[in-house]
Amino acid sequence: MKNIINIQSQYRSEYDHRSICSFDVEVIEEPTKPLIHQMSRFLLINEGHGHLRLQGKEYVLEPGTVVSILPWQTSDIFEVTEPLQFFLLKYYFDGVNNIMKSFYNNSNDPIHITNDLTNMPVIHCDKEQGGIMHQLFKQIHSEIGMESTIDTKQGKDLSNIYLTNKIVEIMIQFYRFGKDNMEENHETSHTIDNAEIIQYIYNHLSDKLTLKKLSRIFYLSESSISHYINKTTGLSFFDLLNEMRIGKTINFLLYTDFTMEELAEILGFVDGAHISKVFMARIGMKANEYRKTYQKVNDICKIKETKASFEIVDYIYRYYMEELTPKLVADHFNISVKNLNKILLYQVEKNYEDFLNAVRINRASELLLSTDMRITDIAIEVGYNTSKTFTRNFLKLRLMTPGVFRQTVELQEADID
After folding, report:
1. Residue ranges of the HTH araC/xylS-type domain (predicted)?
2. Which residue has the higher pLDDT, 122 or 278?
């Protein structure tokens, strides 16, 4: 079991579980062991040089480098040529992401924060940009103190609103500073790294995830995926699911007023009793007791996700094969088409048309691999009126025609090394 990767805590702060973020300063003098991060974080390198491995890809670390690590991504600093000193900001990604889409996005522009930070996790700031980032981190430090010295500060009026604004500003500057660099170094690559399996599971906890489904998505055998998860985390597939779901449960208990039954539906548990049993075994206290002890619903800009939003996503998943138009779905939920798109951009980071096509093409890919159905029949089966429309959308998402996909893509049966 020597290759097992340690999983870090799901809390932003070990001293205040309600905190939306924490600030610290760390020094790394030698290579680190790989870590799986349950909580999102930004690193701002102030001194030193080294190399980071994040999700299997390697990046240079130097003064002015800013690193974004999302929940359940894996990283290690595998080379240190000069001791590294950096600011570390842990923060509640889901909450900040939701606030950006709900409160800041009055124009309803598409915002794809998860995809953007996944595709561009490391940026290198020039002197001016680095100064701006340094100031933002120091402002957060001034507001809440430093975690490792237990110099945490409390009691400032509107502190969480202030901190949320600063994290949003860091995200915006991170995106802007890195955009040109991302465009210059853009590569058309669709190779899936094994590390993406774990992050995919985290991003789709509300789905009915099985090894069989993951096998079809990643073109790996069920045994290969199970072996990789166990070798990497020391957990079985189902134990990993529960670990991730408990982490998300904690955030929902802190920042929403969903019932246990609603949380079970959202997070993929069997029912309210199941979520309570797993939570008690993992955390050592009942979920409702935890909520009463730590909840801070009215202090974080009322971060909430509505049950209706999840029902809309679930409705499209269930009836994708029918002639679904945005107006029909909007009318079904008594909302406007504009609000329908806003909800989907908020929940799945896709508008109605893109999300429906993604669901249909995913199902079509499964049928192409697991059946001998004709392509025309598959097109009709997943909801397209003509094979031409099906092929056009398949090509857009898979970068190949359905016929080529069927001929060239096979489920990998070999174990992962």
Report:
1. 195-293, 310-408
2. 122
pLDDT of residue 80: 96
> pLDDT tens-digit profile of 148-200?
765 555 556 778 888 989 999 999 999 889 876 654 444 434 444 676 788 88
Domain ranges of the chain: 6-184, 195-299, 329-408
**Average pLDDT, stretch 2-18?**
70
Topology given in CATH for the domain delimited by 329-408: Arc Repressor Mutant, subunit A (1.10.10)
Report d(CA 113, CA 94) in Å as an integer.
Answer: 10
Q: In the CATH hierarchy, which fold is given to the domain comprising 6-184?
A: Jelly Rolls (2.60.120)
